[in-house]
Specification:
Its main location: other. This is Acyl-coenzyme A oxidase. With 616 residues, this protein is mostly helical. Among the domains are: 86 residues, Butyryl-CoA Dehydrogenase, subunit A, domain 2 (Beta Barrel), CATH 2.40.110.10; 136 residues, Butyryl-CoA Dehydrogenase, subunit A, domain 3 (Up-down Bundle), CATH 1.20.140.10. A hairpin with a 4-residue loop joins strand 1 and strand 2. The longest helix has 36 residues. The structure holds ligand LSEC2LVB and flavin-adenine dinucleotide (FAD). Ligand LSEC2LVB binds next to helix 5, helix 6, helix 8, helix 10 and helix 13.
Length: 616
């Protein structure tokens, strides 16, 4: 199919090599080539062909995705793939923006076995689980409790005579609920999204399991019922850490899809007039459309950068823990908590902005933006609700203030809290990314000190930490967000500095995006900068001008920057986001193919007939 002339023209501009940026995003040219190979292994294999999942009922969708997920597993085994990124490539190429039915087995059942099973148990369960000889799920949440783990009511009473645990969900609120991939007792019913996953309920009534079913690497129960505590009790929370550490990159992936669709479509879509008589411009030439999409484009790159960094950090910490070193578990937990909370929240807001920016066609499943949205938005609740996780980060920051007062060294990701910040010169409209980073770190430091002073005062008054925290939860959450933005901006600046050395032309365009991310973040909290006397009105006016100027620099690069995400059309599955930009013809073809247009609408005639017969 010929290329849409608008997109063809957009691809003649640009100042950097798209392929080189794709290689950087993938982690090197070899990884790009391997990703292409794996995608083709799926896309060319007829077993992965099937009905357009956007036309399917919940039951049909589950069945079709289960069929495909089993094919994904076979393909992954056939190709001897054990790298999680490569396995995710095969999975994503097949799932058409859905979450597969066996996802929880991979991300929430296998991971805890890996982390908390002893060698014997690994042989018994982990090895067969990795081969899908046993399929598992993660049944923690109950009808009455999800966030408050210490409030869970399920019982495991030890029967010393039989060396067994007797499991019970003694109350209705104790019923296990939301259990992804729970194939035993029942499905919890239709949901907002996640149609490919059978989130189940599980009632336990005197279910007996052997003593050695308790994962024994971190704590065990001896034959006489004595509980031997793990060296570090918090490691039992570790199973939730793995998914949280991975979700920032999942957020980046989903936001990258949404901005690819919205930016390509905004170049194809012509609407209204700027100069009368000069034809309808591309909607991406409207400053308001750029103001919707370019900060999100910058955000997608920022989230990808920090998502890769978080996964590397987490993997290092897990290796340390496997060797018995727990000193970085707390930092890993709060980084994963803060990044998972902020990134997934801003991603679902961003996907919605992308959908709105495509007008009516964004509301059609032909765009796939609604599919991406309803499956992504769960990530702000699942694996730790946003506020719950931000509070974890906030409590850690309050401890950092005490550490600072006591001269205890801080973890590297919060070292900036010990730095002094001053800004004397007036900002013009070309503030560099390092100065923007310093400002964002300054705000986080000041906010942490400000919140800590309130919490301390409350603690003095009540002597109760939980009460003190509860009274200031709103500003504690804002404090955690401010710190997390400092972590994101630091990762982005660090990566762009590195790329500026290795590939100046790519680095330059990414530095523009980094400035857009930083200026947008600062303008979103401009009042704080005035209140803390870090910026004046003139500074803010100047960086507002800078933002609009940056949009003009990014405009000719925008399509190339989304092309660099390198989504195959069959992976993106969006008519608005097609690489060739042939939207209208394919929208019409897709609509005509809808089963709704094929069914004989006998019902229509039947009921309208009644109207005609009725004496209205
Ligand atoms: C093949 C490829 C496939 C690719 C697939 C890619 C697509 C994937 C898309 C799908 C992704 C996800 C699917 C969704 C799956 C969802 C699963 C779930 O939802 S499972 C259930 C999750 N539930 C939760 O997260 C519960 C949240 N609540 C909590 O975690 C707790 O309430 C907590 C821990 C926040 C509070 O704990 P508690 O009440 O005990 O008190 P404290 O706050 O005082 O904490 C005690 C102490 O422990 C430390 N801590 C807490 N959590 C952790 C942790 N996780 N790790 C380490 N340490 C932790 C905390 O800091 C305190 O320390 P202290 O020093 O005492 O202050
Ligand atoms: C798509 C999806 C898949 C899931 N898969 C699984 C799974 O496979 N296995 C599993 O075990 N669970 C699963 N879950 C459940 C998930 O882990 C919980 O929904 C999540 O932990 C939130 O807990 P909750 O639902 O009890 O919400 P609640 O904690 O009841 O939250 C309700 C509101 O109360 C607020 N709140 C609660 N506590 C506090 C507090 N201390 N301070 C301030 N505000 C508070 C929250 O911020 C929120 O606004 C899944 C959920 C979803 C949506």
């Amino acid at each position: 199919m010929p290329m849409n002339p608008d997109l063809e023209k957009e691809r003649q501009g640009g100042t950097f090599d798209v392929e080189q940026l794709t290689h950087i995003l993938d982690g090197g040219r070899d990884k790009t080539l391997k990703r292409h190979f794996l995608e083709q292994e799926v896309l060319k294999d007829p077993v992965f062909r099937g009905p357009d999942t956007r036309f399917l009922s919940r039951e049909e969708l589950f069945g079709e995705l289960l069929r495909k997920h089993v094919a994904v597993i076979k393909k992954t085994q056939e190709l001897s793939i054990d790298d999680i990124n490569e396995a995710s490539t095969i999975y994503s190429a097949a799932m058409n923006n859905n979450v597969g039915p066996l996802t929880l087995h991979s991300v929430a059942f296998v991971a805890p076995l890996d982390l908390m099973a002893d060698d014997e148990q690994k042989k018994k369960w982990l090895i067969p689980a990795k081969k899908y000889e046993i399929i598992g799920c993660y049944a923690q949440t109950e009808l009455g409790h999800g966030s408050f783990i210490r409030g869970l009511e399920t019982r495991a009473d030890y029967d010393v005579n039989t060396q067994q645990f007797v499991l019970n969900t003694p109350t209705e609120t104790a019923i296990k609920w939301w259990v992804g991939g729970c194939v035993a007792v029942g499905d919890i019913g239709p949901k907002f999204g996640f149609g490919g996953v059978d989130n189940g309920y599980l009632c336990l009534n005197n279910v007996r399991i052997p003593r050695d079913n308790l994962l024994a690497k971190t704590g065990k129960v001896l034959e006489d019922g004595t509980y031997v505590k793990p060296e570090n009790p918090k490691v039992v929370y570790g199973s939730m850490l793995g998914i949280r550490a991975a979700l920032p990159k999942v957020g980046a992936y989903n936001l990258s899809k949404a901005v690819t669709i919205a930016i390509r479509y905004s170049c194809v879509r012509h609407q209204s007039e700027i100069k009368p008589g000069c034809g309808e411009p591309q909607v991406l030439d409207y400053q308001t459309q750029q103001h919707k999409l370019f900060p999100l484009l910058a955000t997608a790159y920022a989230f990808h950068t920090v998502g890769v960094w978080m996964l590397d950090f987490h993997s290092t910490v897990m290796n340390e823990i496997n060797e018995g070193h727990y000193h970085r578990l707390a930092e890993d937990h709060v980084l994963a908590a803060g990044l998972k909370a902020v990134i997934n929240w801003k991603t679902h807001e961003g996907i919605e902005i992308c959908r709105f920016s495509c007008g009516g066609h964004g509301y059609s499943l032909a765009s796939s933006l609604p599919v991406i949205y309803v499956n992504h938005v769960a990530n702000s609740t699942a694996e730790g609700e946003t506020v719950i996780l931000l509070l974890q980060t906030a409590v850690y920051l309050m401890k950092c203030v005490i550490d600072l007062e006591q001269g205890t060294p801080l973890d590297p990701s919060v070292a900036y809290l010990d730095q002094s910040f001053s800004k004397s010169e007036q900002w013009c409209s070309d503030v560099d990314m390092h100065s923007l980073l310093k400002a964002i770190q300054f705000r986080s430091k000041k906010f942490t000190e400000y919140v800590s002073s309130f919490v301390k005062k409350e603690l003095m008054a009540t002597g109760n930490q939980q009460l003190a925290f509860n009274k200031h939860k709103v500003i504690l959450v804002e404090c955690a967000k401010a710190h997390t933005e400092a972590v994101i901006m630091n990762a982005f600046v660090t990566k762009v500095d590195e790329i500026l050395q290795s590939n100046p032309s790519v680095g330059k365009v990414l530095s523009l995006l980094c400035q857009i991310y930083g200026v947008t973040e600062i303008l979103a909290h401009s009042g704080d900068y005035i209140q803390y006397e870090y910026l004046r009105k003139i500074d803010l006016d100047n960086i507002q001008d800078q933002l609009f100027k940056l949009y003009t620099y990014i405009r000719p690069e925008a399509v190339l920057l989304v092309d660099a995400f390198d989504f195959h059309d069959e992976v993106l599955k969006s008519i608005l986001g097609r690489y060739d930009g042939q939207v209208y013809e394919n929208m019409f073809k897709w609509a005509k193919a809808s089963p709704f247009n094929k069914q004989d609408q006998g019902t229509f005639r039947k009921y309208i007939q009644q109207l005609k017969q009725a004496k209205l």
